[in-house]
Design a protein that fits this description.
26 helices, seven-stranded mixed beta sheet, about 50% helix, about 800 residues, 3 domains, alpha+beta, 13-stranded mixed beta sheet, about 15% strand
């Protein structure tokens, strides 16, 4: 044999694989699912890490942060641009649809708009937003102009040219007619800035002015000088474009100096510039972040770890089944060695077989990804594209992973074949002893380790989500509907509407509101001066209408709640227990210029990620935008009845309601999504572990057919044989459980640190993981063990 390998060797390998169809399919499909999972997760990670990196100036764009607050004064950007030469341009944005209800009215139909952005025209100098129709760089902004995305143009105008067309919106209950002056190509899903409609920032300023009036903060509508105001934070997010090679730290220092010149009362203020590409993944701990798309970097680390673990399981399956299958081919290897095959030739043949299986697995890998991607997008609310992965370096990485798997498996399999003499290879021992047993058991232990680890993580995350959504928020959310008063006509009729709704037999109570509970990341602040120190103090606050505390059953622990007479003055407030403790006051006392009517029980006005903080509750007596309706539990019927009542008053009204409990659940959307993703991939890990164990047990029992026959002839019962064949697997699962438990405990303990209020790490979750892993092992092994134990011993002794 001069050549290392002949074509006949390849044919023999193919025949060998075709003779063992089930094991070949398990090997190829198992490794394929593992590689497919890696492709899917890599595509997901590429999507997440690609956020905002497609803009040509993205390395020079920064978001302005004051302390931990992402919103800023409107005047701040202009002051920075005028005072700091390194700042080339400034842009402010406001997510109008995140602050107000935005309804598009067209052809007697109403459409809720979820991505309506008010911006400075300079946005188009900073970001790469491609114009499909209209000037390439829109500088024609004004109160009456509107830019729409190409997909909105197709939805509302079809193939017609939308330029010059008029669209009517209800924004914060105010009717606004706007003319389409341009169409832009909608931004990719990996853009933090997402919009279907873009208008001038002046629209947002006008709406904010109306909101101030509607809440009673202004006695009459008046022109508000936003350009020069530094007295309060608004809903604006400010971005700056720096000159090339600017020193960011030095500019931050200059920005802070400018800021303190205008806010002399703030002695410890600080301005920070956050890179635009960091916003999506690195906004944890910042406030008012939801003008843009955000996620968490910690989540990506978890998903990356899951991908590595699943690939590990797939590779272990491959090695495990291949090693067991090779032991059935000892005679073939011995014949090759007797006929003069060198060690290199044997290694080449074994590696070739390993490579054939590994690269064949790429077919089911791509098929798995192609089929899973739409399901993944739909299930997790993503817009991943398969093409993201088809980049040269990522394909090369996949080929390297596949080749590495083949080399690793082939090397492990060939070492034993090279070291063992032909005489020993011809002798098929009844038991596999020594290092081989240790190697195989360690592979099975590793499989179950991964499954137990992922299962525990999934269960703990789900338990925390259940805890978060069922935790006592300090107020009652059950059977409470929130209805949006979306038009000015209905808004003006709210008193008569409430009286009519209260007459419905299934309605317990109905009250108007604007800033209703539950949690909201867009935090409001009451700004006032300390009369003693003269220092400006900003205190977190919410507005609640008279009767809201009773409807929501927020306990008043001291003093009284709002009444019809006291709710008319914004100097009469309620505070929570945390605020009472912070300012050391009691009900009936004055706090600065406020009269403290009462102290309410601490309740969650944000998610359980954050601890309860001091809170002022300011009464609202006009300008309501929503209704709170407490029902007897028949929510669907009540909703239908209220819709009929409102549409009698205004036939074209866009009716929209939701349960307060659903709002709380939506607030934990990212956490729920993280738990779902881990549960999804835990299922894949379980399938892979089962496939690998099934294939390995099939081969192992085939090797023990003679041993089983001899034991039966010598009087062994079926139960004894089944026990003998199961005991090793029980031991391996126990070892995997012992290793996985402390690691899972530590990982989940760190994850739970993200929550100020969290569940305990229940012992039963760890026990259930171990029992489930043991049950899977016993079911897989026992079924095949029983089949082998009930076989005729005469047939077993004839087996070759």
């Amino acid at each position: 044999m001069n050549a290392w390998i002949h074509f006949s060797d390849v044919k023999q390998i193919v025949r060998s694989l075709s003779r063992k169809k089930l094991l070949t399919v398990i090997n190829i499909l198992g490794l394929g699912i593992g590689l497919g999972t890696v492709i899917l997760l890599t595509t997901f990670l590429l999507h997440e890490f690609s956020y905002d990196r497609f803009h040509t100036k993205t390395d020079r764009i920064y978001r302005v942060i004051e302390g931990k607050r992402c919103t800023s004064y409107y005047a701040m950007g202009e002051a920075f641009k005028e005072s700091i030469p390194e700042i080339e341009d400034v842009c402010r944005i406001a997510n109008v649809s995140d602050i107000y209800t935005v309804i598009l009215s067209r052809n007697n139909e109403n459409y809720p708009i979820m991505s309506f952005m008010a911006v400075d025209a300079s946005l188009f100098n900073m970001l790469d937003i491609e114009m499909v129709l209209g000037p390439p760089k829109p500088n024609f902004f004004g109160p009456g102009n509107l830019l729409i995305s190409d997909r909105m143009a197709r939805q509302f105008f079809g193939s017609a040219n939308p330029l010059g067309e008029t669209l009517e919106f209800f924004i914060a209950n105010e009717k606004e007619a706007m003319h389409v002056s341009g169409v832009f190509k909608h931004l990719p899903s990996y853009s933090s800035f997402q919009a279907d409609f873009i208008c001038d920032i002046s629209v947002e300023m006008a709406q904010f002015r109306d909101l101030e009036y509607s809440l009673g903060l202004e006695t009459e509508k008046q022109t508000y000088d936003f350009q020069n105001d530094w007295s309060r934070h608004n809903d604006f997010t400010t971005f700056v474009l720096l000159n090339k090679k600017s020193n960011v730290a030095a500019i931050e220092k200059k920005c802070t100096e400018v800021f303190l010149q205008h806010r002399e009362d703030i002695k410890d203020g600080g301005i920070f510039l956050q890179p635009y590409t960091d916003m999506y993944l690195h906004s944890a701990g910042l406030e008012n972040i939801h003008s843009l798309e955000v996620s968490k970097f910690s989540s990506l680390r978890i998903f990356l770890s899951i991908g590595i673990l699943i690939l590990l399981v797939a590779c272990l399956n491959f090695i495990l089944i291949s090693s067991a299958e090779q032991e059935q081919s000892l005679t073939e290897i011995a014949c090759r060695k007797v006929n003069g095959a060198s060690g290199k030739q044997l290694v080449t043949i074994i590696l070739l077989k390993s490579f054939l299986i590994s690269f064949a697995s790429l077919v089911p890998a791509f098929l798995f990804t192609q089929l899973s991607l739409p399901l993944f997008n739909n299930y997790f609310g993503k817009e991943l594209e398969f093409g993201l992965f088809f980049n040269g370096r990522y394909l090369v990485s996949l080929l390297l992973i596949t080749a590495s798997t083949a080399i690793l498996a082939g090397t492990c399999l060939s070492i034993a074949a090279i070291k063992t003499s032909p005489a020993n290879l011809f002798q098929k021992s009844i038991k596999t002893r020594g290092k081989k047993t240790i190697q195989k058991s360690s592979l099975i232990v590793a499989q179950f380790f991964v499954f137990i680890l992922l299962f525990i993580c999934t269960m703990v995350m789900q338990q925390q989500m259940n805890y978060s959504m069922k935790k006592d928020m300090g107020f009652k959310t059950e059977n409470t509907l929130v209805i949006n008063l979306a038009t000015e006509t209905i808004k003006k009729q709210y008193l008569s509407l409430i009286n009519e709704i209260k007459k419905l037999p299934r309605v317990v109570e109905c009250q108007p509101t604007t800033y209703f509970l539950p949690p909201n990341d867009n935090i409001l602040f009451a700004s006032f001066k300390d009369p003693l120190s003269g220092k400006s103090i900003e205190q977190e606050a919410i507005f609640l209408a008279y009767g809201n505390t009773d409807l929501l059953q927020i306990p008043v622990v001291e003093g009284i709640s709002f009444s019809e007479s006291t709710a008319n003055s914004m100097e009469n407030i309620l505070i929570n227990e945390a605020a009472a403790k912070k300012y050391d006051v009691k009900a009936g006392e004055k706090l600065f210029h406020f009269n403290i009517l009462g102290i309410v029980n601490d309740f969650h006005n944000k998610s359980v990620h954050e601890a309860i903080r001091p809170l002022f509750i300011i009464p609202q007596s006009t300008g309501f935008t929503n209704l709170l309706i407490k029902t007897n539990g028949e929510n669907t019927i009540v909703s239908e009845e209220i819709e009929r009542i409102i549409k009698k008053r205004e036939p074209g009204f866009f009716y929209e309601d939701e349960l307060l409990t659903d709002r709380i659940a939506a607030f934990y959307k990212n956490d729920l999504q993280q738990a779902k993703i881990i549960r999804f991939f835990s299922g894949i890990a379980l399938v892979l572990a089962f496939m690998g164990l099934f294939g390995f047990v099939t081969l192992s029992l085939t090797q023990k057919i003679k041993e089983i026959g001899i034991r039966k002839i010598n009087g062994a019962t079926i139960a004894e044989i089944v026990f003998m064949l199961n005991k090793d697997f029980v031991k391996w699962v126990a070892i995997a459980f012992v290793i996985a438990t402390p690691i899972a405990y530590y990982a989940m303990h760190k994850w739970l640190e993200n929550f100020a209020y969290k569940t305990s790490l229940s012992w039963w979750i760890f026990a259930l993981a171990g029992i489930l892993a043991l049950g899977i092992a016993l079911l897989t092994v026992s079924w095949q063990s029983w089949r082998a134990a009930t076989r005729n011993p005469v047939v077993a002794l004839r087996y070759e």
